[in-house]
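To the wet lab folks,

You asked to see what we're planning to order before we commit. Fair enough. Below is the target structure as tokens, and below that is the sequence we designed to fit it. If anything looks off to you, flag it before the synthesis order goes out.
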């Protein structure tokens, strides 16, 4: 079962995220592709 980000957050499941300091949408897409749930 593939839960949404909101569902996982509500269920207090651990989520993997990162802070990206390079202003590039391509970098954000790469992080999403490898499994990061959020970026800031």
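Sequence we intend to order:
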């Amino acid at each position: 079962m593939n839960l949404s980000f909101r569902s996982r957050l509500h269920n207090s499941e651990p989520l993997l995220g990162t802070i990206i300091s390079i202003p590039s949408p391509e970098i954000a897409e790469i992080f999403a592709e490898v499994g990061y749930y959020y970026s800031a």
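Structural context that might help your review: Helices lie at 5-10, 25-33. The two ends are 26 Å apart (CA to CA).

Thanks,
Computational group
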